[in-house]
Amino acid sequence: MLLLKRLLAWFQPDTSRPLTQTWLAALWMGLLANWPLWKQLQTLSLGLGFTLAFAGMVTAATGAVLSLLAWPRVIKGVLALLLLTGAALAYFIGTYGIVFDPSMVVNMVQTDARETRDLLSWRLLASLLVLGALPAWWLLRRPPAPAQGLGKRLGGNLAAFALGLTVMVLLALSVFATLSSTMRNNKSLRYMVTPLNAVYSVSAVAARNLAGPKGPPAVIGADARLLPRAEGAKPPLLLLVVGETARSMNFSLNGYARPTNPELSRLPATQLFSLRDVTSCGTATAASLPCMFSPLGRADFDPGTPQENLLDVLQRAGLAVLWVDNQSGCKGLCDRVPNSFTTQLPAGAAPLPADLCSGDECFDEALLHALDQRIAALDPERLKRGLVLVMHQMGSHGPAYFKRSPPDLKPFQPECRSNELQQCPREQVVNGYDNTLATTDRLLARAVAWLQTQQARFDAGMLYVSDHGESLGENGLYLHGMPYAIAPDEQTHVPMILWLPEDGALAASLKPDCLAGLRDKPASHDNLFHTAMGWMGARADVYKAERDLLAGCRR
Ligand SMILES: [Zn+2]
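Structure tokens for the assembled complex are given below, as produced in the milestone run.
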């Protein structure tokens, strides 16, 4: 009888105890919030036994880590937060095939309301309610924890931690051969383990931020200067268009079968050069942008050691620099140079046309609005030496591609009208995406037309390059942001386009046919800093001619 009572008590655990709450929540999150992981394991056909062992490992590891936090007045809040986080992650991992690593935390911190709005959906709400809010609500209504001495509670927590680890190790050993080969061949699996992926990634970013000294970025190119220009030569104007989420393989200029570049294709081949083999520095805006504008290149760039960038060096050399942004901002790159959002109009400018903007979002064509007034507001002495105008596009930012092309520019039909891409047939996702590229094509063609109006005053040219690519459902992956080492080509290969009119002074200084030879030469974001410096006739100790795409073409 006593035994039965004991047994019953064991099956009816005292849910007011922090450790009990911890392990119940670990069980819930480990098994349910990881449904995308179980689905992924199923597609790898590793058998039910392996999946069960893996689920047990995930649950044991989650329980072990959280046992260390199983203190009264602390644990309920922690668990509620993690339950909601796990529910949101389950939705995003399950819907878009993304993985959650430290760079994803940086992206989230730097994102803005517009981008967040694009990701919201009823399914996300349902996931949050069922997987997160429901158990969190139950948990928060548990009675207060029974009194227990500090030492005893600490001992209990440590014992639970050790027990969890032991179970995990035993389970891992039981399927060791399959486990080691699976984890080696599917590196993204580890970033799918929810919510430990969030705990790990947030801690890693926090540790990096706490460790790094806060202060102004280190000065680079202190000796920046301009090379002497020929008597009477016009100052150079470089329009640097920073694209967003455009992938190289969907540009018809690079061989794509659909006409995504109808307008640029009409420009003479003696002026327009599309480089077909260009790799990005990162797979997300927050990783790529600072690296693109750094002289260091992908191998040496360290986000934890802030340095000045291309714009600081160009400005120090005496040039006028202006950043115009149609996205969530310049990630600190333009902090020390004149900068503006498309929605902030300079004095004397006409209002933005109504069909260009709705709410707080404008089509990229707003970047071409009021340029004369924006330039007139810059230092005239600097303008005489030259101008670097940066335009930061909204481009093909997903998942709501359909919002990025105006109604009159949707040649590919029908397009997916949802931000839940997996709910649309894949052709419709690609249609919506290709429409955003046609929109960028028209923007760049109109930018060239504007540059042609500046030829009397400047020696004008354009360099367009995207920050990273995009997955459109290949192997079940959507969007971008995969860890670089395992990212597919779709996310790391970006378009880069040069427009250089042959009657300009820069083109005249280059060997004929040399530019055409760049089309199939491998290039990367590593080239951007040095090419822009060379283009503007700027020099500094950090400039490396071997990374300047045009240096080899100079007469
Ligand atoms: Zn981006």
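The pocket of zinc ion is lined by residues 244-245, 285, 467-468 (CB under 6 Å). The mean pLDDT is 92. Further analysis is deferred to the final report.
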